[in-house]
Amino acid sequence: MIEQRAKQPFRFVSCMELREILGKRAMDESRLLEIIEEAPADSIYYHTHSYYLRHPYSQGVFPNDFATWAALHAQDRVLGERLGILDPFEFDDIEQLRVDILTIIDDHLSHLRTIPRSATGEPFEFVRSHVIEADLGLQAWTLREFRETMADVEVGAVYNHVCEARLRKGRLSGDFAGWLSAEDGLGLPDLAAVVVKVGRLGLSLEGMRTRIVRLCDGVLGAPVPDAHRLGR
Question: Which of 35, 79, 82, 178 has CA 20 to 30 A from 2's CA?
């Protein structure tokens, strides 16, 4: 493959979170439901998407804070599992995700005679975060440079360009796919189409990084594969 050079480079920007405790806490699942309904969107985001930033190398059985608390502290494994199968990356905005979380909890509670509460004495503490970006001074002009930087860049950059770009900045394809497909980027729409899907495969951030690197390897070593086959 003859590598083309982008008109504009991809600039890798990482991020860190500043957490703010909201002073809202739930000791039982009924109160949890009430606060989720009224909590700021940034709090719902923190307890779902930001879970991936706090656990970048492994994906737990209950991959969001709501599922974890229900299963471990309220000792309600059924609700934990129902909340745990939610993939936050399948949603284009936080309010859609909030509605699904509320629907799951409400339906679950409607079938119970008693409301599960924290058996450990640990409340669910609602938090929201403010994200601060950090330019890493790294850029890529070619796909090979992009691939090599992706392989080593800190995981906060993966989070920033996948999660933050989609949900908080409104770039629904994410920054990686946006640059790969753009005319002033690399103009590789087939590769971009499968990179978009990486954030919706239930992977950890490290898993996302590995998958994107492998997709780049496939293109660098051969003609661009069929987009449907690459995304499987």
Answer: 178
